[in-house]
Amino acid sequence: MPRRSNEFQDLVSLVQRALAPDDAVVRDSVLVEVDGDQEASEIDVLIETKIGEYRIKIAVEAKDEVRPMDSTKFEATHQRERRTPSHDRTALRGGRGHHPIS
Fold it and tell me: How sure is the predictor about 21, in pLDDT bands with cuts at 50, 70 and 90?
C-alpha cells in the first residue's frame, strides 16, 4: 500500500515531532495489522517512547474532514483503533474540530 499523506497529516506529524521527548521515535504512515481485517491499516503518526521503565506506543490519527467530526465518525474510528494491537493509546486530531458529544 502506498504512503497516504496530506498536508494536515504532515502538520500533525511536525507538531508531534516538536513536542515528543528527545528519545522518542516518531514515524509517519505506519502499516499495522488490525484484528479481524485482512488488509493492513495505516496509522498516520506513530510515537514510540519510554515512560519510566515502560515502552509506550501512541497512534495519532489526523482527520481533516470538510466538517467537524460527528460522534458517529468518532466512534467508528475509536472502534477500529480498539482492534489494533500495535499501540497502547490513540489520539485523534481533527482539522475542523468536532461536535460535542451529548
Answer: very high
